[in-house]
Amino acid sequence: GAVVSQHPSRVICKSGTSVKIECRSLDFQATTMFWYRQFPKQSLMLMATSNEGSKATYEQGVEKDKFLINHASLTLSTLTVTSAHPEDSSFYICSPLVGYGYTFGSGTRLTVV
Amino acid sequence: GQNIDQPTEMTATEGAIVQINCTYQTSGFNGLFWYQQHAGEAPTFLSYNVLDGLEEKGRFSSFLSRSKGYSYLLLKELQMKDSASYLCAVSGDDKIIFGKGTRLHILP
Question: If you average pLDDT over each of A50-64, A91-105, B47-61, which comes out highest?
Fold first, then answer.
């Protein structure tokens, strides 16, 4: 149980464009979704927490207008990186709250050129 | 403030035993996780400790002392595939905070 599907796994986009990352819970309902970012050789940094049907809560230093999170249903949460820049290149991972929260999506490697 | 400390890198030999330590100071504590992460992949769950003591699961064991803010992950009979980063994470105040991870190198 607790299968999470995250897409795309890799994306390369031009600077200034937007990229949408989807995270679907396939066999359970995710009321809460955590979005993490991981730069090379660093640990996961929590970006924001979203709850189904309400606005996301962003961590300090994370621009809410740049990283748009939508959690409109219990099985789908999306993260849109708007006006992407090379410094946004990173590994983005979703993690739905399941019990004590031990599962992760497979991650999305974003490269902005 | 919240802080999780673990060594940056460790090296061990195939077949040996290695212990990765983690100390934490967090606001709120609901449990401590250990995850394994291979390069370019998402973390995978290894263990979860809520109460003090040792939890054993095959070759991997995890220990927790809440009063000391301390945990360790013990890996036995090391295999080459155990070369990875090991992340200590603490659950508290409605979110999970991760340490910076320990890169474990296994030598043949």
Answer: B47-61
Nearest beta carbon to residue A42 from set B41, B95, B100: B100
Does A100 contact B94 at a Cβ distance shorter than 8 Å? Answer: no
- What is the per-residue DSSP string for chain B? --EEE--SEEEEETT--EEEEEEEE-SS-SEEEEEEE-TTS--EEEEEE-SSEEEEETTEEEEEETTTTEEEEEE-S--GGG-EEEEEEEEETTEEEE---EEEEEE-
Please report where in the chains the tokens 């890996």 appear, as a residue. B75
pLDDT in tens, B79-105: 999 999 999 999 877 778 899 999 999
Give A79's strand partners: A21, A69
Report the residue of A23, A41, A43 to disrupt the B interface, i.e. the one with the largest count of B CBs within 10 Å: A43
| Element containing residue A110 per DSSP (H, E) | strand A108-112
- Per-residue pLDDT at A102: 66
Closest by CA to A95, choosing from A41, A35, A39, is A35
CB B70 within 8 A of CB B23: yes
* A104·B95 Cβ contact <8 A: no
